[in-house]
Amino acid sequence: MTDVKRRPGGEGHDQGGEVEPGRFESEHTPGRLDDVELLAEAHRLVSLVLTGVRRRHGRIPGVGTARWWAAGDDVKVATLLILSEAWLIHDPDRAVRERLREMSYDLSAGHDWTEQSRRPSHAELKRRRGEAA
Hints:
Elements (H helix, E strand, L loop, with lengths): L34 H23 L8 H5 L2 H17 L2 H19 L3 H5 L3 H8 L4
Helix pairs in contact: 1-3
């Protein structure tokens, strides 16, 4: 299996839907997918596995039940994938991180950084004072 991540619906993408191996794409950070796209891709992959397991074994048992313990590894993995996807969707820490990132982008975009770029850097101030860097 390759490490290359594809943007869902890769048509119309500058790079033909392909991205550098091990990287994702996002509108804010070139080369990164945003959380919604990652969740959609995770759901697509989990659905593929679950569909195959359900065809072969029928209903997927709950974790820790006697049927689960007696089932093969593919059934156990499918059950854990369901729980993992639920955790991804309902992760409050991830939601907070996402909101803070969005706020950071908004704050950065709303500030005129021109004046800041004209000020000397911390390293330049230290050099002017004769301090070692």
